[in-house]
Amino acid sequence: xxxxxxxxxxxxxxxxxxxxxxxxxxxxxxxxxxxxxxxxxxxxxxxxxxxxxxxxxxxxxxxxxxxxxxxxxxxxxxxxxxxxxxxxxxxxxxxxxxxxxxxxxxxxxxxxxxxxxxxxxx
Length: 122
Known about the structure:
The chain is an alpha+beta fold. The protein has 5 helices and 3 strands, in the order ααααβββα. The chain is elongated. It starts with a helix and ends with a helix.
């Protein structure tokens, strides 16, 4: 979700004193998902959506509690594309695969990598 839209949704729960009260579970989960997918620093994220550091940490903590309680199901599996030349051997004997978006997926054993590639093959 775009940070400007998320900021407006958060502001609907803001009191005149600047405190957040009664934030819905839906908005809490949007903050959590936005924070998880944010490519930059946490400071840029909470400033972008108009929160203070402690407000963001409180919302993230609440979002994780919601997920653990099972009220909101985890998002569906997302397919990741493997870029050419994105395989790296690590010093611990594992293998790292750089996927779209620059994220790394680490595999401790070659068998795990093979299974992953079989499942993601077209």
